[in-house]
Amino acid sequence: MNDFIFYGNGNELVSNRRDDQEIPVLSWHLLQASMVYVNTLMIQDVLADQVWRTKMTARDMAALNPLPYSHINPYGVFDLDMTTRLPLNDILVAA
Questions:
Q1: pLDDT tens string 24-52
Q2: The Tn3 transposase DDE domain covers which part of the protein (predicted)?
């Protein structure tokens, strides 16, 4: 996933100055955390559906991973369903 997110300049930092490296690395970490967060919400929605939950074996549960990125296009085109929203308000209120 790191190569997928940090694809600019051949995955290399172009400067040896620490200050110039800080912003790309922090941005990279923010994108990683955001992807994991959204993917975790999506996994929770699937597991909340009893039909899917009963279909999943113990091996399926052990293989769950919040790092998949095949549904994300790094070049800026995202397929969005604008008629639905992620349940972020419910999660933020509960926290």
A1: 777 778 888 888 898 898 889 888 999 98
A2: 2-78
Contact (CB, 8 A) for 45 and 53: no
* Cβ atoms of residues 24 and 13 within 8 Å: yes
| Residue 67 neighbours by CB under 8 Å, 6+ apart | 1, 35, 36, 39
Q: What is the 3-state secondary structure (H, E, C) of the chain?
A: CHHHHCCHHHHCCCCCCHHHHHHHHHHHHHHHHHHHHHHHHHHHHHHHCHHHHHHCCHHHHHCCCCCCCCCCCCCCCCCCCCCCCCCHHHHHHHC
Record the pTM: 0.58
Residues 51 and 43: their CA atoms lie apart, in Å, by: 14
All structural domains of the chain with their residue ranges:
2-94
